[in-house]
Amino acid sequence: MKFDGRMAVVSGAGSGIGRATASLLAARGAAVAAIDIDETAAKETARMISDAGGRGAGYGADVASAKALDAAVSAAIRDLGALEMMFNNAGILDGYFNVDEFDEAAWRRVIDIDLTGVFLACKRGLAEMLPAGRGRIVNMASVAGLGGTGGGAAYVAAKHGVIGLTRQMAVTYAARGLRLNCICPGVIPTGLRTHSQSILGPGVPDMSGRGIAVNDEQIRATVPAGGRGTVDDIAEAVCWLLSDEAAYVNGHALVVDGGWRAK
Ligand code: NAD
């Protein structure tokens, strides 16, 4: 799997799965634009890439803002070259809150980031990829996109939406040289809960301790593999979906969850 001479935009690249994937793509030769709402974290990922001998640049942007996203992607193209790959990964958890517990503003913010953010990023990417006649996109879904667990109402709805959106685009754009897939991770330890609480801000109840898989016993009961996955497990799968080796894989929702959804 080599990405020499190709440029990739990775959102939510300041932490967790996004940072691991940005680093792996860069280690395999891609020039990587790390975008995050936390600009300092995005720039830190770019610095880690440079320190490891790769080519990276960091940009601050909220993926729910078309204007901010456009500015970041345009800067990445200027700095790193033509856009050929995207991993639209930025997202937040909704704290496992149900409809009767969640207010409209919090619902809208989760949908804006987790679903509309993916739409906006794809739209910006397509503006480069369709004229070029080539491009690969991986969108971040979740096992929560495949059933009624793994998140609260807004998160489950958004992740189902990401899978549907990805399939619609895969069907529409395959004949024009594009491949679009999504990834459905299971339980991966990251900063997701902490970051989500702070991005949603005051007014959203405390998320700690909510939901499944908050302790080892619950994980063993939920995941056939008996433990959590790692950010590297997901980064490897995303790199494969973006690679030449997956040339005939299109419109797929790749589950990487230790067997949870197989139950
Ligand atoms: P993380 O919090 O470690 O990383 C997410 C990054 O996205 C953070 O750096 C955050 O600042 C950034 N971000 C959040 N909102 C943003 C916005 N509006 N604009 C730009 N950047 C934004 O969490 P993670 O687990 O690495 O999450 C990455 C993605 O993986 C999310 O979409 C999440 O829903 C998905 N996911 C995670 C798991 C898991 O178990 N960790 C499982 C399935 C899916």
Can you summarize this structure?
By secondary structure, this protein is of the alpha/beta class.
Ligand types: nicotinamide-adenine-dinucleotide
Fourth CATH level, the homologous superfamily:
NAD(P)-binding Rossmann-like Domain
Walk across the major sheet and give the strand order: 3-2-1-4-5-6-7
Q: How many individual helices?
A: 8
Sheet having the most strands: 7 strands, parallel
Number of domains: 1
The class by helix and strand makeup works out as alpha/beta
Q: In what range is the share of β-strand residues?
A: 15-25%
Q: Cα-atom Rg, whole angstroms?
A: 17 Å
Uncertain residue segments: none
Which term fits the overall shape? globular
> How many strands appear in the DSSP assignment?
7
Order of helices and strands: EHEHEHEHEHEHHHE
CATH architecture: 3-Layer(aba) Sandwich
CATH C-level class: Alpha Beta
Spatial separation of the terminal alpha carbons: 31 Å
Let me know the average pLDDT: 96
* CATH overall fold name: Rossmann fold
Descriptive account of the structure:
There is one protein chain. The protein has one domain: NAD(P)-binding Rossmann-like Domain (Rossmann fold). α3 runs parallel beside α4 and α4 runs parallel beside α5. The model has no long low-confidence stretch (mean pLDDT 96). Helices cover 45% and strands 16% of the residues. It has a seven-stranded parallel β-sheet, with helices on both faces. It contains eight helices and seven strands, in the order βαβαβαβαβαβαααβ. Bound molecules: nicotinamide-adenine-dinucleotide (NAD).
